[in-house]
Design goal:
With 206 residues, this protein is α/β, with parallel strands linked by helices. The chain has a single domain, classed as P-loop containing nucleotide triphosphate hydrolases (Rossmann fold). The chain is built from 9 helices and 5 strands; from the N terminus they run H-E-H-E-H-H-H-E-H-E-H-H-E-H. Helix 3 crosses helix 5.
């Protein structure tokens, strides 16, 4: 089993088993084209995913959309469900299991989410794994524009969300979101336009 962090094996036994993220890989007679796009809020993941969709004709599957669907199933607002996810590991585990099932069932596609690259890595699924990020101040401005919120509110929410996600995924799977070694391409979106990033990803596919 692959090890992504330097945690000792005895420490790992105290976390939820990563086997919850393992599943059967769907066999295919033709080579599937899978691209995972991960990164923090405001990094530009959705914009790049849309460009790749238009160029390749592939469906984009977003972990955010799956999460919103789960909130609706539970008859909760997105905010209520997000607060519940802070307290219950079951929600993250179920979200990631649904993404794994979708990746296997879909075959080809663009899979966007914080854990999509790790899911493919852990299950030996052939995929081009992309990580996109940018300095905090740049991501903050993008989120402010997108959500029409003030500077201090966005900064506070970003810090709380990123701290929470990093802690949760490390506790659940023993995986550090800051470990980028699993990715095939790590991109700083502050130095390139979305079209340039998409072109770099397409070149990597060739």
């Amino acid at each position: 089993m692959a090890r992504l962090t330097k945690k000792k094996d005895e420490d790992r036994e105290e976390t939820a088993p990563r086997e919850s993220l393992r599943g059967p890989t769907k066999a295919s007679s033709t080579r599937a084209v899978r691209i995972t796009i991960s990164g923090p809020p405001g990094s530009g993941k959705s914009t790049v995913a849309g460009l790749l969709r238009d160029r390749l004709g592939l469906e984009v599957v977003s972990a955010g959309d799956i999460f919103r669907g789960m909130a609706k199933e539970n008859k909760m607002t997105l905010e209520e469900f997000s607060h519940l996810a802070e307290k219950s590991w079951d929600i993250d585990i179920e979200l990631d299991k649904r993404m794994l099932a979708t990746i296997n069932e879909s075959g080809s596609g663009i899979f966007e989410g914080r854990m999509t690259g790790y899911i493919c890595y852990l299950n030996d699924i052939d995929a081009l794994k992309i990580h996109i990020s940018a300095p905090t101040n740049i991501r903050q401005r993008r989120v402010m524009k997108r959500e029409s919120k003030d500077h201090d509110t966005v900064l506070k929410e970003m810090r709380e969300r990123e701290t929470s996600e990093r802690k949760r995924y490390n506790s659940i799977y023993g995986y550090d979101l800051g470990d980028l070694a699993i990715y095939d391409l790590v991109i700083d979106s502050s130095t390139q336009k979305p079209q340039e990033i998409a072109a770099s990803i397409l070149a990597k596919l060739e």
